[in-house]
Design a protein that fits this description.
alpha/beta; 38% helix; five-stranded antiparallel sheet; globular; Rossmann fold; binds S-adenosylmethionine; 24% strand; 15 strands; seven-stranded mixed sheet; 378 residues
C-alpha cells in the first residue's frame, strides 16, 4: 500500500466515501505524495512520453504557429508567451528556438504546478527569456500541451437517465467503487448543457474543473491573443480514465496511488462552448492537421535520419497521436485572424536550425562501423 493510499483510507474511515475527483486530485497533486509533486521528467526514464518529448521538432513547428500569431498582432515587443504545465521544459526549448529566428525580444513564462518539474525547468531553461512569475502581464501566445487531461474528474454511471457518482470506498484490503444512491445534480447539469444523454448503464468521466481552468487561462490572455490547447479528446465524455506506470498502460486508477499517472480525455465540445461564452473565438483541428499545416513534410525531408523519421511519423500518425490529439485554437480580439496551423496555405522558407534527436544506439553503432571501415581500409 502506498503512503497516499494509507492516508486516503484513513480519510474514508473518518469522513465516509470520497468523490473520485478528490482521490485523483490527491493522487496527482498531493503536496507530499502526489505523482506530479515528485515527478522529475517524462520519456525513457519516466512513465509516459508526450509529443514534445518524442521529437524536438514538435515544439519548433509550434513556434511557427506562435510567429504567425506574432505577425497578426503587429509584432509586439516583447512577445509574451505563456506555457501552462510545461513539464520537463522540452516544448519551451524548441518553441523558443524557432520564435527567436524572428522575434528578438521574448518573455516566455512557465506556469507549472509541480514543484519538482518547476525545478527541472529552472535547471534546463537558462535563456534570459524564461520566467516563472505567475503575476506576469497577460500573454500574446499561450499553450497548454496535455495539461487538461491531467485535471481531476468525477466518475459516474448512468441510471434511468441520471448520473450517479461512483465514489471511492474501502472494502477489506482494497479501495473500491461505491455507487451513490442519488443522482449528482452537477453531473446531470453538465450533460443537460451538452444536450446529450449518455447510454444507460455507461460509465462517464466528467471534468467539472474544466470551467475554472479555462477561465483562468482566458484571464491570462491579452485582449489580443491566441491560445492553443492540445489534448486527447473525448467529446462527449465517456469512460476514458487511463493510467501509466513505467510505459505500461492500465485502467485501474485505484492502485499505486501517487506512483502512477492518471489521465482522462478532454471534452473538447464543452471547452469550445465555455470559450465562446467568455467572448473568445474557438475552433479545433487534429494534431496531424496542425503539423501538416505548419510544414511537417518539409521538416521530415530536412531530417533524413532513421531516428528522427520514426519519431516524427508517430506525431502525425492518423491512428496515433496525430489523430487522437485535438488542438483547440482560442482567439481573442483578432476578428479577421485565421491561424496558419488551422487553415494552412503558407509557403515556408527553407527550414534552418531544426532540432533533431541524437542517433539511436543501433544507428550510432552502424555509423561507428561505417566510419571505422572507411578510416582503416586495411
Ligand atoms: C501530462 S504533463 C504534460 C507536460 C508537458 N506539457 C508535455 O507535453 O510534455 C501535465 C503537466 O501539467 C502540469 N499541470 C497540471 N495541472 C496544472 C495546472 N492547473 N497549472 C499548471 N500546471 C499544471 C503538471 O504538473 C505537468 O507538468
Amino acid at each position: 500500500m502506498t503512503p497516499l493510499e494509507a492516508r486516503l483510507r484513513e480519510r474514508i474511515r473518518r469522513d465516509g466515501p470520497l468523490s473520485f475527483r478528490d482521490v485523483m486530485d490527491a493522487a496527482l497533486y498531493d503536496p507530499q505524495h502526489g505523482y506530479y509533486t515528485n515527478l522529475r521528467g517524462f520519456g525513457a526514464e519516466g512513465d509516459f512520453i508526450t509529443s514534445p518529448e518524442r521529437h524536438p521538432a514538435f515544439g519548433w513547428l509550434l513556434g511557427r504557429q506562435a510567429l504567425d500569431a506574432w505577425h497578426a498582432l503587429g509584432e509586439p515587443s516583447p512577445f509574451r508567451i505563456l506555457e501552462v504545465g510545461g513539464g520537463s521544459g522540452a516544448l519551451a526549448t524548441s518553441l523558443l528556438r524557432c520564435v527567436r529566428s524572428e522575434a528578438s525580444e521574448v518573455v516566455y513564462t512557465l506556469d507549472e504546478l509541480s514543484p519538482s518539474l518547476r525545478a527541472v525547468q529552472q535547471e534546463r531553461l537558462t535563456d534570459r527569456a524564461f520566467r516563472w512569475d505567475t503575476t506576469d502581464a497577460p500573454a500574446h501566445f499561450l499553450i497548454a500541451n496535455e495539461v487538461a487531461d491531467a485535471l481531476p474528474v468525477h466518475r459516474g454511471v448512468v441510471r434511468t437517465g441520471h448520473i450517479h457518482e461512483l465514489l471511492v470506498s474501502v472494502d477489506g484490503d482494497a479501495l473500491t467503487w461505491l455507487e451513490s444512491d442519488t443522482p449528482n445534480p452537477a453531473l446531470d447539469r453538465y450533460f443537460g448543457e451538452l444536450h446529450y444523454a449518455p447510454p444507460e448503464g455507461s460509465i462517464v468521466d466528467v471534468c467539472l474543473d474544466l470551467d475554472s481552468w479555462l477561465r483562468a487561462l482566458i484571464r491570462r490572455m491579452d485582449e489580443r491573443s491566441v491560445a492553443l490547447v492540445l489534448d486527447y479528446a473525448a467529446s462527449p465524455p465517456r469512460d476514458s480514465l487511463l493510467t501509466y506506470y513505467r510505459h505500461t498502460l492500465g485502467s485501474d486508477p485505484l492502485i499505486r496511488l501517487g506512483e502512477q499517472d492518471i489521465s482522462a480525455h478532454v471534452d473538447l465540445r464543452t471547452l469550445v462552448r465555455l470559450a465562446i461564452a467568455q467572448g473568445v473565438r474557438a475552433g479545433a483541428t487534429a494534431q496531424r492537421g496542425l503539423l501538416l499545416n505548419l510544414g511537417f513534410q518539409q521538416i521530415v525531408e530536412a531530417l533524413p535520419r532513421m531516428t528522427d523519421r520514426q519519431a516524427l511519423a508517430e506525431l502525425a500518425d492518423p491512428d496515433g497521436l496525430g489523430g487522437k490529439i485535438a488542438v483547440l485554437f482560442l482567439i481573442r480580439g483578432l476578428p479577421e485572424y485565421r491561424p496558419v496551423g488551422a487553415v494552412g496555405g503558407a509557403n515556408w522558407p527553407e527550414a534552418v536550425d531544426v532540432p533533431s534527436l541524437p542517433p539511436s544506439q543501433a544507428e550510432q553503432e552502424f555509423l561507428d562501423q561505417w566510419r571505422e571501415a572507411f578510416s582503416n581500409p586495411a
